[in-house]
Amino acid sequence: MRDIPNNLFRVKSPLRGRVLENRRITPEARGVKNDVRHTLIASPGLRYIPGQSVGVIPPGVDPRTGKPESLRLYSVASAAKGDLGDGRTVSLCVVRHFWKDPATGEEHAGVCSEYLCDLKAGDEVLLTGPVGMHFLVPEDFRERDVVFFATGTGIAPFRGMLQELFERGHRREAWLVFGVPYRDVTLYDEEFRRHLEHPNFRYATAVSREETNPNPDRIPTPNQKMYVQALLYARRAELGPVLRRPRTLVYLCGLKGMEKGIFEAVELVGREQGEAGSLVERMKAERRLFVEVY
Ligand code: FAD
Ligand code: NAP
User: Fold this and answer.
1) Do 291 and 151 contact (CB within 8 A), yes or no?
2) Which residue of 59, 90, 227, 250 has the smallest Cβ count within 10 Å?
3) How confident is the model at residue 100, as a pLDDT?
4) Ligand 2 centre distance from Cα of residue 75 (Å)
């Protein structure tokens, strides 16, 4: 059996992590709405596998319940050995969340994402976890092709997964299809470009507010924006055969809406390329489809 760490730290006995660095990874000029942080936290004793999440307990009391704030989950954004390579850190990739109160129309910042985005080096942060037993890369990954679809901070788990795949000798086809609003907010872009030294790596970005969906009649998107599902369809000649191969692992992470969009595109490509039934259902039956969207 594979040793998957699980809930090594809980709310009642959380890990007292220490922020080593909290770096904004999108241009300041994009404003608070595109504020994404790469947060490096010293977390001795915390073991994890990329694809798992950790809990963060923000300080304060939830005014709605009068109880201490509850934990929020964040995907681990580092490989198991951590960004410093000593197995004693965890990295997160956090977007500053905003929401509008439908009753008042007022806009509010999310409690925990704001707390995380504003942390400074040296600050303490309470962590729980790790959690998640399924959104992982299986041990037989060397025999597999892999396709990752991410939107925004949904890239977090794939950063660590890609690092580990290449370090551990994955040589089959590995795709990253990444959706972002603007080209200059393509998270970890330089790092992914460096992975292009691996001849098996394919990296494609869908820049929704700067590129146009070339097939809006087949894959409708709002204002003909370039979304990951539109990119999948545009590159169907390459991606279709990969997605159809029983050995290919397919991962989706990010915004809830991407699931429906990707599934519809997969079904369309499947039909066009000769699938008798539903390609999504076949992927599920072959236990090679992994989805984490919120
Ligand atoms: P909150 O303050 O919790 O607000 C969230 C929502 O709650 C608001 O949009 C609003 O709808 C509602 N709400 C809050 N307060 C009120 C109120 N007073 N009245 C009415 N409604 C209210 N995010 C990342 O950035 N990076 C990640 O890697 C990441 N990974 C995740 C992994 C998993 C498995 C899951 C489940 C989520 C992940 N998230 C990630 C999302 C993250 O957990 C948080 O949901 C996100 O940061 C927002 O939390 P918050 O405390 O800032 O917002
Ligand atoms: P974002 O910047 O708002 O969006 C990223 C891209 O996705 C944008 O280009 C956006 O286009 C596009 N998009 C919007 N709707 C889409 C749809 N229906 N289909 C395909 N693409 C779509 O992303 P974000 O603010 O980082 O938010 C990411 C979300 O992922 C958050 O909700 C976060 O909680 C979640 N998340 C989950 C996990 C997890 O489950 N493990 C991990 C990390 C993050 P436009 O904005 O131009 O329309």
Assistant:
1) no
2) 59
3) 96
4) 14
With a 6 Å cutoff on the Cβ, whether 72 touches ligand 1 is yes
Question: Please, which residues bridge with residue 268 across strands?
Answer: none
Q: What is the pLDDT of residue 65?
A: 94
Sheet with 36-42, strands from edge to edge, namely 72-75, 53-57, 124-131, 15-24, 36-42, 89-95
Query: What distance in angstroms lies between residue 148's CA and the mean position of ligand 1's atoms?
Result: 23
List the catalytic residues.
Answer: 74-75, 253, 292, 294
Atom 51, ligand 1: which residue's CA is nearest? 112
Element (H, E) at 193: helix 189-195
> Is the shortest distance between the CB of 205 and ligand 2 below 6 Å?
no
Reported pTM: 0.97
Q: Over the stretch 47-94, which tens digit does the pLDDT of each residue have? A: 999 999 999 999 999 999 999 999 999 999 999 999 999 999 999 999
The pLDDT confidence band at residue 2, using thresholds 50, 70 and 90, is: confident
Supply the mean pLDDT for the chain: 97
Ligand in closest contact with the CA of 26: 2
3-state secondary structure of 246: coil
Residue among 55, 51, 46 at smallest CA distance from 11: 55
DSSP letters spanning 30-89: G-GGG-EEEEEEE-TT----BTBEEEEE-SSEETTTTEEPPPEEEEB-S-TT-TTSSS-E
Tokens of 7: 């809930």
Residue 199, both tokens:
């001849």
Please state the atom number of ligand 2 nearest to the C-alpha of residue 36.
26
Q: Among all ligands shown, which has an atom nearest to the Cα of 224?
A: 2
CA of 254 to the centre of ligand 2 (A): 5
Asked if 155 contacts 178 with a C-beta cutoff of 8 angstroms, the reply is: yes
17, 90 contact by CB (below 8 A): yes
Cβ-count burial 105-133 (b if 16+ within 10 Å, e if not): eeeeebbbbbbbbebeeeeebbbbbbbbe
